[in-house]
User: Fold this.
Amino acid sequence: MINGIAIDYFILLSAVLFTIGAIGVMARRNSIIIFMCIELMLNAVNILLVAFSALHQNTHGQVFVFFVMTVAAAEVAVGLAILTMIYRNIKSIDTNLLSNLKD
Amino acid sequence: MLGLSVHQWLFGILSFLAILFSLMVVFSRSPVNSVLYLIMSFFSISGIYLLLDAQFLAVVNIVVYAGAIMVLFLFVIMLMNLNQDTEPQRTLLTKIIAGVIGGMLLLTFTGALKGAETLDKKFYGVSETGLVQNLGKVLFTDFLFPFEIVSVLLLAAMVGAIMMGKKKIQ
Assistant:
């Protein structure tokens, strides 16, 4: 219990947000939306880390969230650069058109 | 009210908003609307961090995610001129399959994580773990080496993004 809220509710919230992100990755074809859904999944995991950090009164979980945010920022910078390059070459970011590695 | 405390009410409202806006991210047609809904979702998540006494992370979440990363997304969307309703959609069958797989994933998560924390810990009152003073102490003593490595990672990402974005490399 953290301030009267059971830890199970935080776990449930995190699981629901992660699932929404996963469904978004599977159900959409726009690469940018897929990227945003990945951000959503990272945030779901961050909530869980902060919740357990607050439960155990230990700072290490929050420091780890800090590192996750840094890695997410780096990932977005490189990923969006790749997307702009793809858009420059084929004028689309539809994932169905990005099948050059398949054949 | 209804036997619930202020913290419980706030948690319920914030998590409802976070889930609602996340669903809007997935289901809205226009990418610009998706980005705006994602920003709202991040604000709700920052509120949950505040409930958990992680003040520093709540501010960093708004500044880094809602401020920097989402603006980058918006810039790229504007650059590609994607704000059109004729964007490609998956077939209905694929969407249904994605929904079923997602439901099974959620079921697995809740089943596996329910009662994962068996410790009967209770915490009430003002916590000081989330203040920038305590976080900074840990970050610059226990986690000094990872902290330095992360700076190299950011430099590599910066150089990589610039190299990728250039038209031709001389």
The radius of gyration of chain B is 21 Å. Chain B touches chain A through 85 residues (CB under 8 Å).
